[in-house]
Amino acid sequence: MSDVKLIKVTVDDVEVEVPLGVTALQAAELAGKEIPRFCYHERLSIAGNCRMCLVEVEKAPKPVASCHFPAADGMKIITDSPVVRNARRGVMEFLLLNHPLDCPICDQGGECDLQDQAMAYGQDNSRYREPKRSIKDKYFGPLIKPIMTRCIQCTRCVRFASEVAGVPEIGAVGRGEGMEITTYIEKAISSELSGNLIDICPVGALTSRPYAYVSRPWELAKTDSVDVLDATGTNIRVDSRGPDILRIIPRVHENVNEEWMADRGRFSFDALKKRRLDRPWIRENGKLRAATWPEAFGTIAERMKGIPGERIGAVAGGLADAESILVLKELMAGLGSANLDCREDGAALDASNRAFYLFNSSIAGIDQADAVLIIGSNPRVEAPVLNARIRKRAMVRVPVGVIGPDVDLTYPSQHLGSGPEALSGVLDSAFGDVLRNAKRPLILLGRGALARPDGAAVLAAAWGLAQSINAVTAEWNGFNLLHLQGGQVAALDLGFLPGQGNKDLGAMLGGGVDALWLLGADGFDPSLIAPGTFVVYQGHHGDRAAARADVILPGSTYLEKDGTYVNTEGRVQRGRRAVFPPGDAREDWRILRAASEALGVTLPYDDRFGLHARMQAVNPIFQRLDETPAPAPVSASPAGDAGAVGGAPFSPAFANYWQADAISRASEVMADCARAHAPTPAMAAE
């Protein structure tokens, strides 16, 4: 604050100091006064069109809209006076002229800004006797249910779509009473952040289509948790009623997701009731049959008896929690095996130093970057909320360069090439001068650049580039790796990788093991598993790998258990159980602990407290919740020959954003989205 000039403003006879440049509304709120508003939103541009935030300013001829009126030194603001109250009542009367009496059936009822402010600032009668207007409902896609008769034209949705999501597909047509908010050609909104329109709409004009007419907010149990369907670590609130999750909404976390959330994490929870594994299964005579837990553990013990440790392997999936990853690793160690892998895509990750696999600048650090280079990644679909941060920087003319697929990132960018040859020659281009002159350059390396035969060389080349432009210093580490799912970093932190001389995923699939334990590992083709390999699949959905399993152990989704996750920037966060898993499904670490007894290698902890103590002993980073590591200079380099990069172009990490994991592949809502956003086939010329 030492560099910020302060001014003195009097708000209702209380003098406060506020930063120069704030508005009268912000000054009043800094003084502890509540100002009603509809169109104003802290993260959007100022529209000033609802006029609900009217206040008196000394010497002003009439009440002013405080949301865009700049505060000045010595200004006197009056937030509650007869003039202000009458003005707000008049504004509220105008807003309610055409608003239907839908409160008894509106999904916004009980958490509606219009309801609250009509009670607090409105009046109990209306002079309007003419018929209310009616507007035909629009089509915004399978996620948003628009009822535009309720719209008060605050234009929050228009500004969010164009400013935050970067998809200017919503706008206003008509004038005056004929004005309508629409998508013009009535197609699904092509944004992975469209669900946030529901949150920012202050009335019931934009509501959740899957949640329509399902529940009232006061009926819901609310559980704070974290989204793991991408690696951003979005803080969420899970609303449930009885055994059912009815909706998921974001929580505010300024350093992670601000207040936004990606659509896949928000809407795919209907999959918790679809294709679930709710009992153990055993394959006999080529067919799976339902079994009990003792039968399943007995079969595993019998089939794995006598198999040497070097012929046993384990793979951890991208949605696994840290607790189950650690227990599986120690179960394998008890069996004499170090054949472990958490890289389902085969990415060449170097876990010798945490700086080689983290988003070291931190997500909030994107706001300080003055040049961005994206290599082998499409953050728009891999981490939509993080991509919105990059867009925020790009909109203030921070240059962005892209090496990889030429896709629409929702912000201006310079496509430098499609493969490693552009990476090796970037310093010789005009964008190389941009990177060299930047004080805080940010290099974002995607899994699509590493999940290839020359992945280790690409990693080394990207690290060398970061060193050459002085992007890694004691004050700023601009080397960043973007992961795809919320369980991948914890697995690296816990060392769930093959040691020297042990087998990685490719070797295990190719016949290098006789027994393979899959912990929610659905990110590879199970047909690659060598015939004759005994496969134990532990997971929550009957996805790809479950069909290949000899024994299936039903686990829990991230919404059905307490779990620890580490996001792409290395921030340790805890998810909480919102509902119980179905049937005989259990928490994954408890399944593994029980299996250790059946296999004769009983693990030394039997409750969560002992397990967390063990996690913290293995890696002290689990002692610090909701913290990111401070940047520090790194003298070593990743293993890999930077000169051995190939010529093949970088490929996308996944082709279908809406069905990128076991949960979303089981979701009917995500299937609807995939169909709605499928490329339209080109029509033949006549």
TrEMBL record:
Classification via PROSITE patterns: 2FE2S_FER_2, 4FE4S_HC3, 4FE4S_MOW_BIS_MGD, COMPLEX1_75K_1, COMPLEX1_75K_2, COMPLEX1_75K_3
Xref: CDD domains: fer2, MopB_Res-Cmplx1_Nad11
Residue span(s) of domain 4Fe-4S His(Cys)3-ligated-type: 83-122
Enzyme Commission numbers on file: 7.1.1.-
NCBIfam families with a match to the protein in the record: NuoG
Cofactor(s) needed: [4Fe-4S] cluster; [2Fe-2S] cluster
Cofactor: record remark: Binds 1 [2Fe-2S] cluster per subunit.
Name recorded for this polypeptide: NADH-quinone oxidoreductase
Family assignment from sequence similarity: Belongs to the complex I 75 kDa subunit family.
